[in-house]
Amino acid sequence: MARLKVGVLISGRGSNLQALLDAAADPAFPAEIVLVVSNVPNVAGLGRAKKAGVATATVNHRDYKSRVDFDNAVTKTLERSDVEFVCLAGFMRLVTQEFVEHWHNRMINIHPALLPLFPGLDTHQRALDEGCKLHGCTVHFVRHEMDSGPIIGQAAVPVLPEDTENSLASRVLTAEHKLYPECLKLIAEKNITITGNSLTFKQASQTTEEIICNP
Ligand code: GRF
Predict the structure, then answer these.
(1) Domain CATH code at residue 43
(2) How far is the CA of 59 from the centre of ligand 1 (A)?
(3) Is the full-model pTM beyond 0.85?
(4) Is residue 143 included in any domain, yes or no?
């Protein structure tokens, strides 16, 4: 079966991108990363893509008059490379309704919290401030409202009494790197049916269950 052609949008360090690149390096993985697009020039993530032999593009939001113009340029760039599916991986731009609709059910995001808790920024500090005993990450289809949309997978990690924002972020990040490729795999192997905002999993893989319950 042909592998799903994926474009990854980044703005920075790209450690989740790296997890996707590493997974897709296995020819048996059902998706391939065909393009990495950054809205910020020269970020570390672009270097990771180049090292993996994956094409890159920079679409600098500062070069566009409006969000719509910028988003259209991103879509054109992705489509020139025949991208079928988009993964947001630390992409720090709010996208327009048009962009979300264009990529409807063809775009996913990873968020460093157990949604619907803590959408937005500073998720780790907020989890600490609230005294959460569990925290984690979520991979979800993108809908217009920020950090919302049908949830594909979540990984939970404990919050320890001695945690700082950094130690908690690093524990969550390790879980993110397992969860994101696994969720992309479920989609690429057509394991998920989407009806409106609800998802049905044809068969949850053993690995998914392990990640979700025991990151
Ligand atoms: C990750 O924590 C991700 O959940 C969030 O932004 C961060 C990106 O990190 N959306 P990286 O660029 O993938 O290292």
Answers:
(1) 3.40.50.170
(2) 19
(3) yes
(4) no
